[in-house]
């Protein structure tokens, strides 16, 4: 998929993101910036400090000198990655949104403290840009392929932001990858590149960490009324040999696929040559609300995997456990560092 907004939100709480620091949280906590659910609002719901907001809101600034003209929040990405775009959502903030914002990024090893982050060197990702109130402000980032671990949101001069989304491609640290790992996981760089249908649920959700808590956290298609079937194409985070495939239909009870099939693609140049694809799992009967696990024997190295569901339905998670070569590990290390 070329749409950067379909890439994983590297800052999301479900992805492992966290808010490390905020200059001010008088009206609403910065931790809500990375909540997974869409912002909500209940009018006339007041607390001790005013109307309750689902987002981050600072007090009105009264600048007293240099450096006192804006608020900021620092967010740890759930996985190191390349940033392709950001969303600064001011939903429900109308007379109290910041007129402008900027985003910077840094890369620090390990688990730095707030003080270490504040003292770090930061690189502009999004220059100071105008915002609209009660709007999902989207910004494509035309940056290089550097890998970042943290972002810093600056708002000018103050106000409220409901959500910060940082969409991009995760690049795992090879030093932290075991011999066998999930090659398709979004946190390891797995990406959905094409899909036949995403009417009810987005296919990239299948690659997110953890178990799905509902049908809404998986991929679900509309009902087919023809002789075809639905499918999704996944580019593995790292090319490798798959040893175990997990296709999880949890929560999909009356709308699970009847059958599914997995094929591997040894080279991206073979995408348009189905005869070159490798059978990983033949067409197999699916059960509703079930974590299916299948051993995969003697599979060659593949770069992409295509999951076909027959004829349609929902899948909560797709896991493809396997290993990569030492050559691939070295390449990943070069890219990461």
Automatic annotation (TrEMBL):
GO terms for molecular function: allantoicase activity. SUPFAM superfamilies: Galactose-binding domain-like. GO terms for biological process: allantoin catabolic process; purine nucleobase metabolic process. This is Probable allantoicase. The keyword Hydrolase applies. Keywords: Hydrolase, Purine metabolism. It comes from Catenuloplanes indicus. Pfam families: Allantoicase. Residues 16-170, 189-324 form the Allantoicase domain. Belongs to the allantoicase family. It catalyses: allantoate + H2O = (S)-ureidoglycolate + urea. The keyword Transmembrane does not apply. Its EC number is 3.5.3.4. Pathway: Nitrogen metabolism; (S)-allantoin degradation; (S)-ureidoglycolate from allantoate (aminidohydrolase route): step 1/1.
């Amino acid at each position: 998929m070329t749409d950067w907004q379909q890439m994983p939100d590297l800052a999301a709480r479900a992805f492992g993101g966290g808010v490390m620091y905020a200059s001010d949280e008088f009206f609403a906590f910065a931790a809500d910036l990375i909540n997974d659910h869409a912002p909500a609002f209940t009018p006339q719901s007041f607390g001790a400090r005013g109307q309750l907001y689902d987002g981050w809101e600072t007090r009105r600034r009264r600048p007293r000198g240099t450096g006192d003209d804006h608020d900021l929040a620092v967010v740890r990405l759930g996985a190191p990655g390349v940033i392709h775009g950001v969303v600064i959502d001011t939903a429900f903030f109308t007379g109290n949104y910041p007129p402008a914002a900027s985003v910077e990024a840094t890369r620090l090893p390990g688990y730095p403290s707030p003080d270490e982050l504040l003292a770090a060197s930061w690189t502009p990702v999004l220059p100071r840009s105008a915002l609209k109130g009660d709007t999902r402000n989207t910004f494509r980032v035309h940056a290089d392929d550097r890998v970042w671990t943290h972002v810093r949101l600056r708002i000018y001069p103050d106000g409220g932001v409901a959500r910060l989304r940082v969409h991009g491609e995760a690049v795992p640290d090879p030093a932290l990858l075991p011999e066998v790992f999930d090659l398709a996981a979004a946190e390891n760089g797995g990406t959905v590149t094409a899909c036949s249908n995403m009417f009810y649920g987005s296919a990239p959700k299948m690659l997110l960490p953890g178990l799905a808590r509902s049908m809404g956290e998986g991929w679900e298609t509309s009902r087919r009324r023809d002789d075809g079937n639905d499918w999704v194409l996944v580019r593995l985070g790292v090319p490798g040999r798959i040893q175990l495939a997990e296709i999880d239909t949890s929560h999909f009870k009356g709308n699970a696929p009847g059958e599914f099939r997995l094929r591997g693609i040894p080279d991206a140049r073979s995408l348009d040559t189905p005869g070159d694809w490798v059978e990983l799992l033949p067409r197999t009967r699916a059960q509703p609300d079930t974590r299916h696990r299948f051993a995969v024997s003697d599979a060659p190295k593949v770069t992409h995997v295509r999951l076909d569901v027959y004829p349609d339905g929902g899948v909560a998670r797709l896991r493809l456990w396997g290993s990569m070569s030492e050559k691939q590990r070295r390449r990943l290390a070069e890219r990461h560092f």
